[in-house]
Amino acid sequence: MQIKKNIAVSETGFVFDPTSGESYSINSEGQEIMVLLKDGKTAEEISETMCAEYEIDKAGFEKYFYDFIGMLRQFQLIETED
Amino acid sequence: MEKKQFERPYIKKLQAGMPSKFGMKSRVEPLTHIEDNGVGDLIKEFGSPLFVISENTIRDTYKKALHAFSIRYPKVQFAWSYKTNYLDAVCRVFHQEGSWAEVVSGFEYDKALGNGVKGSQIIFNGPDKTDEDLKKAVENDSLIHIDHFDEMYSILALSEKSGKKPKVAIRVNMDTGVYPMWDRFGFNYENGDAWDAINRMMINEKLELVGLHSHIGTYMMSTNSYKVAAGKLADLAHGIEKKYGVHIKYIDIGGGFASKNTLKGAYYPGTDTTPSFGEYAEAISSGILNSELDPRNLPTLILETGRALIDDAGWLLGTVIANKRLSSGNRATIVDVGVNLMFTSFWYEHEIFPAAPVSEHLEETTLYGPLCMNIDVLREAIAFPLLKKGDHFVIRRVGAYNMTQWMQFITLRPNVVLLDTEGKPHVIRKKETMQNITEQEVLPGHLT
After folding, report:
1. Which of A79, B85, B86, B240 sits at a 20 to 30 Å CA gap from B363?
2. Structural domain of residue B37, as residue ranges?
3. How far is CA A22 from CA A75, B14, B100, in A?
4. Are B315 and B341 in contact (CB under 8 A)?
């Protein structure tokens, strides 16, 4: 799972996709996950980082994480694996 | 180090478009307390979902309405509309404030008697009054509002048997300039049916015609329609006085005042468009005062306002069951409150608030109820905060009709609590149990 390389993620909660020209707003949790994904972290590593920082357990995080990935896929911000 | 509160990760496409011309806040403020009671605490003690009714709000709203009418018209009497909310505790608050009872069935009539309302202060409306109901109403000197000729002749027959002269009013329907015109109840003004009913009654002399009644519709946004209705009833009263020398004791203008809820498809929110009690009062009182009626001997003005007196006093507390995405990518939130408890969600876009502080992020969401039924939708599209499973929320202005039109369907109905004038919660209707439902069932022998 990899965020497209040219996607820009700002620290202030905005995402820009130069391919489509679309902009997105994200909350701080979403922004952190996108940065970690861009850094090439695995789902497991992201879960550990987020659970250490936030009031959430691994099982709770997992369902929101995969839901979020679903949204990124919906907006075509994730590299398709072929 | 203390961990940060987790909000579910969120991403939303930014769409350039017209800015909101209303300049409404895009942020949803939480509603954490209802009169000093924490929403979480109430749910912990009484369960979720939970209806909460504020006694203070009922009393304050009633006083505002009474004041608005009393400063414009000399004789005003409210009659609490039982069908709007007939929980005994609610009815008794209105009766303590001075309201009579307005009922539309034998069941509601008995409830009013049970609440200690004098028979002579019960207004009996509606198209379905059985002979037994009518007999009781005649014996108790209640005010029977006649809906059709069949009913009139039933009452005449009863009066012959009992030797009493029943106190009656006729319900009059009329064109007040609104569409649709409610002509299924009562006798029509324009085609002469109303006069026909009055003439038969006056010539017969077995009934005492004490009042004239109309109820022009529900959620009426046009105050002028009330002015027209009040004027037409006043003209009828004047005509009766001239023709028969009989003074009509009251004009009952019914109910139908809008609450501040927003109707589906409305352009502006209800909070901006709903007429105030003062505006309704101005229209109705001027309709009567500008008529030919003698100002020194005016009939009492009776109001059967329900919705506008109780809607604001009710909240429904609930809990998020789950979040999911639909095939379109749109967000869906499933909550434990459905159309079984929120009948009014079929026609209102209810305001819904999170019960705890949330970030400024809002997501376009469909709010689904818990029923396994496709039509169980609380809000089709609402900009809603990012609530998680187990988070609580509050639906505002649910006091009218939901606690009478609710359904025992798929799930059981929850507790209803009343916050007294000190803010202390009291259960006024216990949540249903399996036994409440099954004790009404009877198994035939071959299935036991």
Report:
1. A79
2. 33-53+312-438
3. 9, 7, 62
4. no
Query: For the segment B263-280, what is each residue's pLDDT rounded down to a tens digit?
Result: 888 888 888 899 999 999
| Residue at which a domain ends, from B278, B310, B342 | B310
How does DSSP classify residue B120? G
Contact partners, residue B314, CB within 8 Å, separation at least 6:
B51, B52, B53, B54, B85, B397, B398, B399, B400, B402, B403
B49 and B61, same domain (yes or no) = no
Please state, in angstroms and rounded to a whole number, the distance separating the CA atoms of residues B321 and B415: 19
Cβ atoms of residues B448 and B441 within 8 Å:
no
Q: Per the domain annotation, does B79 fall within a domain? A: yes
Instruction: Give how far A23 is from chain B: nearest CA, Å.
Output: 6
Give the distance from residue A82's alpha carbon to the nearest chain B alpha carbon, in angstroms.
23
A55 in reach of chain B (CB within 8 A): yes
Residue B376 confidence (pLDDT): 94
Contacts of A66 in chain B (CB under 8 A): none
Q: Best interface-test mutation with A: which of B1, B2, B8, B388 has the largest number of A CBs within 10 A?
A: B8
Distance CA B129, CA B140 (A): 15
> Using CB atoms, which residue from B3, B323, B329 is nearest to A55?
B3
Structure tokens at B178: 């609104």
Whether this model's pTM surpasses 0.80: yes
Which residues in chain A have their CB less than 8 angstroms from residue B324's CB?
A: 67
Query: What values do phi and psi take at B323, rounded to 5?
Result: -120, 145
User: What is d(CA A7, CA A19) in angstroms, rounded to the nearest whole number?
Assistant: 8
| Whether residue B223 sits in one domain with residue B144 | yes
The verdict on B240 and B348 lying in the same domain is: no
Question: Rounded to a whole number, what is the distance in Å from the CA of A6 to chain B's nearest CA?
Answer: 17
Coil, strand or helix at B320? strand
pLDDT tens-place string over residues B360-381: 788 889 999 999 988 999 998 8
B7 in contact with chain A, both atoms CB, cutoff 8 A: yes
Yes or no, beta carbons of B11 and A75 under 8 Å apart: yes
